[in-house]
Specification:
The protein contains 6 helices and 3 strands; from the N terminus they run αββααααβα. The protein is an alpha+beta fold. The protein has a 3-stranded mixed β-sheet. A hairpin with a 4-residue loop joins strand 1 and strand 2 (about 65-75). The two termini are about 30 Å apart. About 20% of the residues are buried.
Length: about 160
């Protein structure tokens, strides 16, 4: 699938590069990501508002969550990736319930699949999230250590 649900384990929420560097450094990164993507979503090719999405790799055996790069995503693709956050925002009335239907439609259109395919993918993603949320992950930002040193971050595991 071109567009997938990528739920961050609960114990890793907000342990990302963006929250561990200055706004200035983050802006440099995201602007490079947008330029490299020709200012369009890397998944669905939509233009307009873009989000700089952190891409993670999970070593389930050694319990290491490694930041491997970034993607430029439109709002819909970004929210599909973070579907758990969407559910929280809908529950707290920050987003309308209809928003979920719009995201499901977007997922199905991008992946040329059925709503049932979406539901199966969602269920697998949530099951993986439940298992991964039982673990205290070692966050690996190693390839970004020069940026982190500028802020002298101490939260990060190298």
């Amino acid at each position: 699938m071109k567009l997938e649900i990528e739920l961050i384990p609960k114990n890793s929420w907000y342990k990302n590069l963006r929250n561990n560097i200055s706004k200035r450094e983050w802006d440099k990164i995201r602007k490079k990501v947008y330029k490299k993507a020709c200012y369009e979503c890397e998944v669905c090719k939509n233009t307009g508002l873009l989000y700089c999405h952190e891409r993670w790799n999970y070593d389930d055996i050694n319990k290491i969550q490694k930041l491997i790069g970034f993607s430029a995503l439109c709002e819909n693709c970004h929210y599909v990736n973070h579907l758990g956050l969407v559910n929280i925002k809908i529950a707290s009335n920050e987003l309308p319930e209809q928003f979920m239907d719009d995201l499901i439609d977007h997922f199905c259109k991008v992946n040329d699949c059925s709503k049932r395919d979406f539901e199966e993918h969602r269920d697998r993603a949530y099951n993986k999230w439940i298992e991964r949320s039982k673990v205290n992950w070692n966050i690996d930002f190693r390839i970004w250590k020069d940026i982190l040193k500028k802020k002298q971050a101490t939260l990060i595991d190298f």
